Amino acid sequence: MTTPTVDTLRASGATIHYEVRGSGPILLLIAGGTGGAASFADVVEDLATDHTVVTYDPRGIGRSPLDHADAEQHVAEHAEDAFRLLELLAPGEEARVFGSSSGAIAALHLATAHPERIARVVAHEPPVVEVLPDAADHRALVARVRETFRTEGLQPAMAVFAAGVSGDRADEQRPQPELPPRAAERVARSMADLPYFVGQIVPRFMSYVPDLPRLERLSERLVVAAGEDSHGELPYRAASVLAERTGAPLQLFPGGHIGLTTHPEEFGARLRGVLTTPAR
């Protein structure tokens, strides 16, 4: 296993932990949820054989502490952290960027804010619910999650969130995929960040309104991805509508919303293929 170069970047209101592996064109991986750089542990080695792969813990997650723990979060600020990493590690170079879930929302904003720096952006199931015709229902969901978290605590809020994200499939009795041992250990370690995720990331990121005209102009460099097992779920619906409204292709990836964790080998192979396919 390759030993990464590990360092920190001082950003506005936070210190960002990042890791660099490999050589070749720059590839920035932006994690969603609470996993941080560790989310990519099972795919990063293969990607680093022909890319300079940058992973990091988003601000407030893992080893990237906030200066003030209760600081309000904003998608633009998270995207600016990603941009500053590109400026530090590959100044002036066009980058390939992959983001999943909330990380995909940060990747979309990065692409619209700094299109000159993006060679390809792959957004895996960004929960951009504001593009949906029933967006008002999802605003109400976010409000319920916040209120439940405030009045009842973390686990009830997570239950409300999970039921809302499941969408049309909420009543299905679906077996949960068994995680590989290393992935299960990473998930357990990330539990400490769940209060921050539910209290700060969910409400801010799920209320984000993507700049559809700018994304449409970037459609030849944009790939919207969705899980093969996610049909009917909220992030899949949002990804599908985003692809339709921007003219970007919708690519199916192995597994569901956390296919990166449950199907890492197949997921990594699909990502490599999408990254190396010539732009339309």
Structural features, described:
It is a single chain. By secondary structure, the chain is an alpha/beta fold. The protein contains eleven helices and eight strands. The chain has helices at residues 44-47, 75-89, 102-113, 135-151, 154-166, 181-190, 194-205, 212-217, 234-246, 259-262, 264-276; strands spanning 5-11, 14-21, 26-30, 52-56, 95-100, 118-124, 222-227, 250-253. An eight-stranded mixed beta sheet has the order 1-2-4-3-5-6-7-8, with helices on both faces. Strand 3, helix 1 and strand 4 (52-56) form a beta-alpha-beta unit. The longest helix has 17 residues, at 135-151. The model has no long low-confidence stretch (mean pLDDT 92). InterPro entries: AB_hydrolase, AB_hydrolase_1, AB_hydrolase_fold. This is Hydrolase. GO terms for molecular function: hydrolase activity.
List SSEs in N-to-C order: EEEHEHEHEHHHHHEHEHH
Total number of beta strands:
8
Average pLDDT, all residues: 92
**Spans with pLDDT under 50 lasting ≥5 residues?**
none
How many structural domains in the coordinates?
1
- Termini, distance in Å? 35 Å
Instruction: Give me the CATH architecture, please.
Output: 3-Layer(aba) Sandwich
| Strand line-up of the largest beta sheet | 1-2-4-3-5-6-7-8
Q: Can you summarize the main beta sheet?
A: 8 strands, mixed
> What percent strand?
15-25%
Assign the CATH superfamily: Alpha/Beta hydrolase fold, catalytic domain
CATH topology call: Rossmann fold
